[in-house]
Amino acid sequence: MSYNVALNFEDGVTRFINCNGFESVVDAAYRQGINIPMDCREGACATCKCRVESGDYSLGDYIEDALSQDEADSGYALACQMRPTSDCVVLIPTESQACGTKQESFVTRIKQVRALSGSTFALELQAESLKSLEFLPGQYANIHVPGEAHHHRAYSFSSMTAKGDTVTFLIRNVPGGLMSGFLSDRAEPGGEIEMKGPFGSFYLRPIARPILMLAGGTGLAPFLAMLDKIVAAGGSPHPIHLIYGVNTDRDIVESERLDGFTRAIRNFTFDICVVDVNSDHPNKGYVTHHIKPAQLCEGDVDIYLCGPPPMVEAVSAYLRDNNVSAASFHFEKFTPSIA
Predict the structure, then answer these.
(1) Which of 50, 65, 120, 231 has the fewest CB atoms below 10 angstroms from its CB?
(2) Are residues 245 and 320 in the same domain?
(3) Where are the alpha helices (DSSP H) in the chain?
(4) What are residue 120's phi and psi, to 5 degrees?
(5) Domain enclosing residue 81, as ranges
(6) Membrane-crossing residues (predicted)?
């Protein structure tokens, strides 16, 4: 039996390795050209101490000076002794380059650019090399702006095709933006775009309790990828509710896809709200206006939040002012760039 192990490094780079059931994480990583720092290989020095974010594993043999019981109970392990018994996500407390690896780069072709609304594009990129790409749902890639030598933009993956050779991103149409200008005026099917990734610590953790997802604008993208993953896994044992907020009616995108998730995931529900007071939508206001106490489950809830900084700050203030201490709170801020 072999398992996929995602190694998340301090610099945001994620690399995936395949680990056989009899291998330690260190040995599997070395076999695949990633040199996790270590000194002893015997569970004695603690140089390879890491934190297991998700998955099942055995700790192996080690001495308590290298890994205390409190640390083991908190999810820490020694990579030279840890042996996965399922797919895992492991946080490595060093930069990727220090381990002899780096971000992966893909040369892709534009498959399609679709204007989902006046404010949002869907960009589909295709390449045979993408079949080797793996990402945690919620992570992002850096996409080079064609014709701009040193400019790239970070966008969350919103989906990957079943064939694995196409990825999709939701991109906000920013007036005067470099990427927006390219997609509006110059992008053509077959055009070349370089993409690097995956990156980021915003991703779906194992579902252990109800989930509340809060999306602002194109911050919907990572949640679409997460929901795809949940469908592929056969659903969720706990309720999942998404609140998707936009500024105007014309900013609403992918509502049919969200409807599809309600049919594919038995206990998934969603609300859309619009800030514009002149909106025809029944739910007006900000996402915080539509969070119901029942969705917070008296704190026994995992909250995921992705949106612009003011939204992230407003939600954080809402939770603080209402004395909500969630079991976990994961967020990602994004700021549209022009220059």
Answers:
(1) 65
(2) yes
(3) 25-31, 69-73, 178-185, 221-232, 255-264, 293-296, 309-321
(4) -145, 130
(5) 2-99
(6) none
Q: Are residues 135 and 181 in the same domain?
A: yes
d(CA 191, CA 74): 48
Residues 131 and 91 in one domain: no
Tokens of 61: 């043999």
User: Is the predicted pLDDT of residue 337 greater than 70, yes or no?
Assistant: no
Check which CATH number belongs to the domain holding 275 and give it. Answer: 3.40.50.80
On whether residue 128 sits in a domain, the answer given is yes
- Give the Cα separation of 36 and 79 in Å (integer): 8
What distance in Å separates the CA atoms of residue 325 and residue 319, rounded to the nearest whole number? Answer: 7
d(CA 31, CA 109): 31
Same-domain check for residues 13 and 125: no
Where are the alpha helices (H) located in 203-308, listed in sequence order? 221-232, 255-264, 293-296
With a CB cutoff of 8 Å and minimum separation 6, the contacts of 278 are none
**Which residues, 6+ apart, have CB-to-CB distance to 24 below 8 Å?**
60, 79, 80, 81, 82, 83
State pLDDT tens for residues 232-279. Answer: 999 999 999 999 999 999 999 999 999 999 999 999 999 999 999 999
pTM score of the predicted model = 0.86
- With beta carbons less than 8 A apart as the criterion, state whether 304 and 200 touch: no
Asked whether residue 206 is assigned to any structural domain, the reply reads no
User: What's the CATH code of the domain at 7?
Assistant: 3.10.20.30
Q: What pLDDT shows up at residue 338?
A: 53
Q: Do β-strands 49-54 and 76-78 pair in parallel, antiparallel, or remain unpaired?
A: antiparallel
230 touches 203 (CB < 8 A): no
